[in-house]
Specification:
Length: 751
């Protein structure tokens, strides 16, 4: 019954032992006469810290009995989910603060044998004792309420951390995964598999000194909006937020703890052989991170399934996106078994190849192709951390003895090999070349902020007065350059997921945007109105759209993407329609371009081929008119000279190549070498005498087309770029970064 009088409130507090004896005596003796309304008295008890808001609410509503669970007194809810509700609680005799997970009744049947199995598994899980695992103290039941008492940790899970702050710095992400691997190794040595590793099941706890300093500086923020969605956020509702200075701390500043270690197995112990952690008929695990073999039979997996899920978690920490962001749960499970996620380097170009190799090896489809133990992964990450992230000041004055260096190098390289690759022989040592002179940075004239996460696509309007940007946050932003500064317009949300490609029509009045999801949608936007509006939807692709281009007259659009097709669209009429589907590529298409006369479309893909298609032909099934193929790797960008006689291609092997294409058989004119990373963008100058190229490491080169020599080189101050665009005159460059910002540079002096 609802509490209506102060004496009733005092009596309930006494019966439920919600206050210490001296607190109860003071409340009855001094506070009760001063506050005759039970609500007012309860508020005073909350202000003094004797009750929590949650306890006060439950007591006044007549539900004080719900606050006691065996030897524990519930303090406040921390979250809820499919398996039950989590509370912060205190052991009444020991005074130890714990997290209590109260299991939903339907998670365990009342079959005595099932309950015994549940308790047996809880005892096994309670044997785990490791700094990187949230400890389980107790598992019991009161009446029909089963619960688990766990270590209470003040922190934030990695899912929420990435949502709040974006992709993590590389050293921090590596250290978090290394710590999780150490916890999994401890569990494996005791015969346990987690079977639901994911970012929300990895909690990072920052040092208490940092927490105290944060409180003292007033930087503890109240959560705004809804309560935490994850049931595994074992921290108060006034959620802990990572301070801005935390990313400057050493990578080991935070301690990662694995949540729910053994809980998946406990839940399964209470189900029949065909049941699961989630709903009946579903697999055990989370579709965004589940290992292929676990989806087929979750009861026979070993620790390598957890390593696959840890690889998906690593991918998320580095990019801010799950490996397969689109589709239903069943579709995602199938993609984990059959498909490869978008290359890590595309979403986070600054990820070094050895680190990308670690993620690929963790997410290998076959368990035997992965790391075989978490300890192996932890050791590899330790060595990589030393080699990749050690500051110059911390480096030793002299190298260690040669055998030690060679041994470490071989260990790291063997761990990063793709299955089936042979380890190349180490070349003989040679004197280090003199350092190359530092490249100048171009003049930065604008720094634009608006996107959350990686900027995936950029395009300058033909008149150079505006810039379009698209990101993994699913937004398209139009930046108009005015004398008073850039004016930002966020277009209405049309794409279901991220925006992967953009292109302006030659008149600048139409913008095309390509989807970064499985729906393969291409939207057309009218920019002639005061507010941009979508007016056309091109549907045909069955995978993400990686490349877009308009014909010189603006009447046709070419698109290419993950379904390995190039599609031509008539967009001049009132209703756009597909004109042709061009097939031949065997992997994702990364670039499309029209010749100046609009009669030919060039396409380049991850299969390392360049195909030239005649737009005026009618028998499309006969295939491309010309095919260029070589050992240069993925073709990231194509450009045709203003006279249409020369084709330029930027590729994964860091080389820019030029072909003469004004004859039936293209002739290789030259290979331009200066880049140290994959070439992302190429563009001819209006007179065709120079060529601009941009690589993923931020190097920009303007080439003499005739001699093949660099005319000028720059290095962008921000380094790695996710996307780039250049104005038609080649004088201005925009670069998109993984933190959602865009930098605009002037490459030539203002005239």
């Amino acid at each position: 019954m609802t509490i209506v009088t102060v004496p009733n409130l005092i009596e309930v507090l006494r019966e439920q032992q919600l206050l210490e004896p001296e607190q109860l005596a003071e409340a009855a003796r001094e506070l009760a006469p001063r506050y005759p309304d039970p609500q007012d008295l309860a508020d005073q008890l909350v202000l003094r810290g004797w009750l929590t808001d949650y306890q006060s609410e439950r007591v006044l509503q007549g539900n004080a009995g719900e606050l006691s669970l065996a030897s524990y007194r519930l303090l406040e809810p921390l979250g809820s989910g499919g398996m039950g509700q989590v509370f912060k609680a205190i052991h009444q005799r020991l005074g130890r603060v714990v997290a209590i997970k109260v299991i939903r009744p339907d998670r365990l049947s009342e079959n005595p044998e099932a309950i015994r199995r549940f308790q047996r598994e809880a005892r096994v899980a309670a044997q785990l004792s490791h700094p990187n695992i949230v400890l389980i103290f107790d598992a019991d039941q009161v009446d029909h309420r089963h619960f688990i008492a766990m270590e209470y940790v003040e922190g934030i899970d990695l899912d929420q951390l990435v949502q709040d702050h974006g992709p993590l710095p590389l050293p921090l992400a590596c250290d978090f995964i290394r710590q999780a691997a150490l916890g999994l190794q401890h569990a494996q040595e005791r015969g346990m598999v987690h079977r639901d590793i994911k970012p929300s099941n990895l909690l990072v706890s920052w040092p208490q000194e940092q927490l105290r300093r944060q409180k003292a500086e007033g930087r503890r923020q109240q959560t705004v909006g809804s309560r935490p969605k994850s049931e595994n956020l074992l921290f108060p509702v006034s959620a802990f937020r990572l301070p801005p200075a935390a990313f400057s701390l050493p990578a080991s500043a935070g301690v990662v703890k694995i949540l729910d270690m053994g809980l998946a197995r406990m839940m399964d112990a209470g189900q029949g052989p065909e049941s699961s952690l989630t709903e009946a008929g579903m697999v055990m695990g989370t579709p965004d991170f589940i290992a292929p073999e676990q989806a087929r039979n979750s009861h026979t997996v070993d620790i390598r399934a957890d390593l696959y899920s840890l690889g998906g978690t690593f991918y998320f920490l580095l990019t801010g996106a799950v490996p397969f962001p689109e589709g239903t749960g069943v579709e995602k499970i199938l993609m984990h078994q059959l498909d490869q996620p978008r290359p890590l380097e595309e979403l986070r170009p600054e990820v070094p190849p050895p680190l990308a190799g670690v993620v690929r090896k963790l997410m290998a489809k076959r368990p035997e192709d992965r790391f075989q133990t978490p300890a192996e992964l932890a050791e590899t990450l330790t060595l990589l951390g030393t080699k990749l992230f050690e500051s110059p000041e911390a480096a030793p004055a002299a190298p260690p003895p040669a055998p030690v260096v060679q041994g470490e190098e071989r260990l790291v390289r063997e761990d990063l090999l793709i299955p089936g690759e042979a380890l190349p022989a180490s070349p003989p040592a040679s004197p280090a070349p003199p350092p190359a002179p530092a490249l100048p940075a171009p003049e930065q004239i604008l720094h634009l902020k608006g996107h959350r996460g990686c900027v995936m696509a950029l395009a300058f309007a033909p008149n150079q007065e505006s810039l379009a940007s698209g990101g993994v946050d699913g937004t398209i932003r139009l930046w108009e350059f005015t004398p008073d500064g850039p004016r930002e317009t966020c277009l209405p949300r049309a794409h279901q997921g991220d925006v992967n490609s953009l292109a302006f029509a030659p008149d600048g009045q139409t913008l095309a945007s390509g989807s970064g999801t499985l729906d393969g949608a291409v939207w057309l936007w009218s920019l002639a109105e005061h507010e941009p509006v979508p007016f056309g939807l091109l549907r045909g692709h069955t995978n993400l759209v990686e490349a877009l281009a308009f014909s010189p007259d603006g009447k046709m659009t070419a698109s290419g993407g993950g379904d390995k097709t190039v599609r031509l669209w008539d967009v001049a009429g009132k209703e756009s329609r597909e004109r042709a589907t061009l097939k031949g590529h065997t992997d994702h298409i990364k670039s499309v371009a029209f010749t100046p006369d609009g009669k030919t479309v060039a396409s380049g893909g991850m299969d390392g081929t360049i195909r030239l298609w005649s737009v005026v032909r009618r028998l499309w099934s006969q295939g491309p008119t010309t095919l260029l193929q070589g050992p240069w790797g993925a073709i990231n960008s194509l450009a045709l000279s203003p006279d249409g006689r020369t084709l330029a291609a930027g590729s994964m092997d860091q080389v820019v190549r030029l072909w003469s294409v004004d004859s039936p058989k293209p002739i290789l004119r030259g290979e331009f070498r200066s880049h140290k990373a994959a070439v992302r963008l190429v563009l001819f100058s209006p007179d065709g005498k120079t060529l601009l190229s941009v690589s993923t490491d931020g190097r920009v080169v303007r080439w003499h087309v005739g001699s093949g020599k660099p005319k000028r080189e720059w290095l962008l101050p921000g380094g790695m770029v996710c996307s780039a665009a250049v104005t038609l005159d080649g004088n201005y460059l925009a670069a998109g970064a993984s933190d959602g910002t865009i930098s605009v540079y002037r490459l030539e002096e203002a005239r």
